[in-house]
Amino acid sequence: MSTSTPTEAPSQRDRILDIALALMAEQGASGTSMRQLAKACDLNVAAIYHYFPSKAELLRSVIEERRYGLRLQELPVVEIDPDPRRRLVILIETIWRGALEEEAIWRLLLGEGLRGDETALAVSRELLDVIEPALREWLGTLFDDTDLDNDAMTQVIMSQLFSFFVTHLFRPDAERAARVHQQAEAIATLAFGPTSR
User: Fold this and answer.
1) CA angle (52 as vertex; 47, 54 as ends), nearest 5
2) Which of 102, 114, 83 is nearest to 161 (CA)?
3) What angle do CA 72, 125, 37 make, to 5 degrees?
4) Cα separation of 26 and 21, whole Å?
5) How far apart are CA 81 and CA 87, in angstroms?
6) What is the pLDDT of residues 140-171, one digit of tens each?
């Protein structure tokens, strides 16, 4: 009989979640078996089921326990440029960099969502319900109502994030940052007009 300490169990569980995220982001949740996960973790399958009674529960835990939704509720650190146009570009690029830090989770959500996985779809909807109000609040904090229509800009930026993911997947590494900057500048031009030269 194993005697595990309270600190052992969470670290083992976290290790399983980290490995599961890597596998699922690479080959999809449906392409990742519990047996394969157990092998990658150097555990037996029963140990995986001890922590996660089903694959759906594992997927939900992988997504939820990254705490991404909670982190989105805090305003990212954004350089407060006096030029609102520049401030918007900085905000969009900052949001994108934050999304890239969680690339594996987004790959998993988008991939499983496209496959129609109910757990991924439900968790994705929950995340969207957190992201949109947070973004609207960030815009309200950074811009005066006379500067920007925050509701409309929230929708534009949300849509653009999905475009950024497509760009990120299909463009060569060297082009990605420049393309994101170009698209952020285009949004700022639509919101505030062209830069004055």
Assistant:
1) 115
2) 102
3) 85
4) 8
5) 5
6) 988 886 778 999 999 999 999 989 988 888 88
Mean pLDDT confidence for 100-116: 85
Q: If DSSP states are collapsed to H, E and C, what string results for 92-159?
A: HHHHHHHHHHCHHHHHHHHHHHHCCCHHHHHHHHHHHHHHHHHHHHHHHHHCCCCCCCHHHHHHHHHH
Amino acid present at 112 = E
CA angle 28, 34, 35 (to 5 degrees): 115
Instruction: Phi first, then psi: give them for residue 145, nearest 5 degrees.
Output: -55, -30
Q: What is the pLDDT of residue 91?
A: 92
Residue-wise burial string across 31-42, b where 16 or more C-beta atoms lie within 10 A, e elsewhere: ebebeebbeebe
- Do 124 and 113 contact (CB within 8 A), yes or no? yes
